[in-house]
Structures are given as structure tokens and as C-alpha cells.
Amino acid sequence: MLAFITASIITAACSQSARDIDEAADAFIAASEKLAQGLAGEGTNALRALSAKHPWFAVAQLELGRAEDARHSWLWAYVAYKRYLVAAPSTPDKAAIAARLLELEDKVPALKDFGDGERAAAAGDWRAAITAFEASIAKKPAFTLPYLALADAKVRLGDNTGAKIAYAAYLELDQDAPDRKECTAILERLRREK
Length: 194
Hints:
This protein is 79% helix and 0% strand. The chain is an all-alpha fold.
């Protein structure tokens, strides 16, 4: 684990300030200590705050996924694991995390639909992706990732009105979205284009 934390910090050093890296590392240690002391709620909340503020800090995303998983908070474990794979795309445990994501999809129908949508999008079947993302949203309206994926799929099919609605819903539901700045810029551009 120490080697992975060190690798995360070294990778982050390429694009983050030393102050941000120190802050993230200190917050991670504090959250880990709370979890080790059996304070699962406090530790998980600290990891959530850290992950929201420093989405690039991959090890925090991984530990948040594990903490949420241990609490049987499947939806949030799924989100954290997904964000972990974005933050650390070449991680050696990628296959194990991908397998866990599939297991979580089996536990929560909204996750299954979301996963089906992602696979359809990867294959370029945007209409099937939209259908799956909308099914996921219908089953779990507070699950934010399908809104973001739906927005992207709608843009790809030229449905900018639908994309604006999906981006706005995503931003409204996930106030701590790590990609908030980028999504807000895309939404503003779509609004200007009419």
C-alpha cells in the first residue's frame, strides 16, 4: 500500500502543487487513522471530502470505494471505484477493480443499467446507451453518473437540448463533482449555441 501511495503522490506531483499534495496526503492519513480506529462514519466522511477536493489523488478514491463497500453503500462504492480508475488508469489492480464493479452492477439494478450504457457507448451504439442511462436514472434518480454519461451521448447524437438538461441535472445533483468546472463550461457553451 505504501508503494501505491508513493506512486500516487509522484504521479500527482506532475500536475499538482506541493501544497496540494501535502494537504491531500495529510488528509488521507487522518482519514485512514479514523478508519483504523473503527470510526467508519468519520473516516468515510473524511475520505469523501478529500476525494471531492482532490479527485486526482487516486489512493483516496480507492480507499473511499473500499470504505463504502464495507458499509454496503454499493452505489457510492461504485462511484469511488470508477473515479479511482480514472485517476489511476494504469493501476496494477485494474482487473480486480473492474471485476468488483461488475459484482456491484449485479447488486444494484441502476448500476447494471449504467454499466450496460457504458458498454453500449464504448461500442458506439449511442441510442442503446441513452436507453440504458435513462433506465438507470429512472431506477435511482440520485445516482449522478448516468446524467453525465447521458449528456455525452445526447451531444454525440446532436441532441443539444437533451444534453443541456442532463448536464444541468448532473451539476445540480452533484455539488462536489470533480469535473464540475469542465461540465459547467460545456453546459455554458451548449446554452450559447442554442
